[in-house]
Fold this protein.
Amino acid sequence: MRKLSLILVVVCGFSGVFSGTMCAQATDGNLVGAVEDASGAAVSGATTQLVNVSTGVMRAGMTDASGLYRYNNLPAGLYRYRNRI
């Protein structure tokens, strides 16, 4: 099995953080990342899995041709991520 390095970028959007009044606040976010092998090459077709530690809810996905994956509309919480080639 090849050693994989994982790049996770958590993208959360909050509007009005620095304004005087807040109309709404985001309660969910997105997780975007890439799966790469030890040489830094993208791994396409890798199976990805994200599990909410508190609820046990699991989401599965797969990397695209560029080795990227994305999970949208995730409720705030602690998650465990796994991938498999």
Summary: Residues 1-20 have pLDDT under 50 and may be disordered.
